[in-house]
Amino acid sequence: MTSILVTNDDGIHSQGLVSLANTLEGLGEVTVVAPDREKSAASHALTLHRPLRINAWRDGYYMVNGTPADCVYLGVVEVLDRRPDLLVSGINRGANIGDDVTYSGTIAAAFEGTILGIPSFAISLVGNQPYDFCNASRVALTLAEKVLDRGLPKDTLLNVNVPSGEIKGVRTTRQGKHIYEELVHEGIDPRGGKYYWIGSGEAPHVDQGADTDYMAVRDGYISVCPLHLDLTHYESLETLRQNWEGDLEGALALESSS
Ligand code: MN
Prior knowledge:
By secondary structure, the chain is of the alpha/beta class. It contains 7 helices and 13 strands. The strands form 3 sheets. Strands 3-4-2-1-5-6-7-13-8 form a 9-stranded mixed sheet, sandwiched between helices. A two-stranded antiparallel sheet has the order 9-12. α1 (15-24) packs across α5 (134-150) and α2 (68-80) packs across α4. The longest helix is centred in the C-terminal third of the chain and has 18 residues, at 234-251. The termini are far apart. Bound molecules: manganese (II) ion. Residues 9-10, 40, 92-93, 106 line the site of manganese (II) ion.
């Protein structure tokens, strides 16, 4: 029977997770392994310096006192004891586009799945409260069928963002760019100490091309962006080789071995 692992970064009590897991049940056996509380922006962190616990919550649902990446790793190694056929992470409350990709726990869970050799995708619902996960769940089901049928390119995952409201179509996209203006909110706590709150600034100003994830969801399209585990910027390799290697070796007083 097809085995599907589901996780997220909003925590096991998130409605987006439950909606996703319920919908995917039509395709096989769904196992949910998710953080016991919200872990948004946890990125790809693994918990190495304290013990982790897996607690059964309800039938097929397990919660972990760790990060999304912890959940995927423990889900595969301990809960399932074998590699599932598919990993789906989400449905996240809010978009994961542009530079969000490197902060997102939702996407990191799909990265972890990809590292473990599991075809994986992350799915996020654009917008704010109140969230309606119906459309995004339908998109997840359709995409899950396709991925199970066709697989994904090696070391590649899909980052999917579904607009709220009416969907006009599907666009395959590249990662866009955010330019955050005011990132930190300053305040005074009840005991008179200064505090800083990250990420409470204005909505990001965005510098975008037409083929980006941002523009797709802004125009009402589902964005499907392939992401690769290898973060090397290949276009820069030759420039760096020519202009940096020798200079750095010279500055470090090293003899080139090449
Ligand atoms: Mn989240």
